[in-house]
Amino acid sequence: MQVGDPDGHGRYGHVDEEADGLLCHECGGHYRSLGVHAYTAHGMTADEYRAAHGIPQRVPLIATETREAVSAASAARVGSEAWLRMVEKRDPTAASHARTRESFQRRGKDRARQIEVAKRNIAGARKPITRRCEVCDRPIVGRKDRSTCSPLCARISTYRSKSSAPAEVWDQLHAEGAGWSEIGRRYGVTHTNVRNTVLRYRAHMADVEFLEAHGPGDVPEKRG
Ligand SMILES: [Zn+2]
Ligand SMILES: [Zn+2]
Q1: Rounded to the nearest whole angstrom, what is the distance from the C-alpha of residue 187 to the centroid of ligand 1?
Q2: pTM (predicted TM-score)
């Protein structure tokens, strides 16, 4: 299938937007959040929806108006409590589903940790005497040009800024018995890509768990 070809109710590779929301390829309805709708109505995660209809990660699955409201709300992120409250006003059923399964899937273990640190950083923003590590929230000493406190936190930060593949979902699928090739076919990528992505994700989560258990100090630059 080529970008622009007819695909269900829409066009492959495109998200069509009208005043009442984004067009769902699966059912032809219009919705403020295709991510929430695809999950609650069609049982597809946002990544599965993107894969099925050729939608690149850079194309939002949230209607422009809703998206602008989200960016206007200062600390609000997709999946955050503020975002859920907003969705709840527009689509209470979707929001209640989002609260349970999707908020877990969207955020995941790593995302939940990031939100915790972000909350602490926001709370501490009123007294900007000490710069704090964006990963672990500890004061930054002797790394004035950095946003992280240590090589460990720098590595965690780099992984988070670069990773875009649904690594946690793939890791979960593999843990449930799906092979690398099987996952690759579902998402339209090679089995090598899936395996490397999951191994990087596991190394990253090992870093995150090490950080939680031991703090950021005395960690080798690279782990084997
Ligand atoms: Zn639909
Ligand atoms: Zn740190």
Answers
A1: 20
A2: 0.45
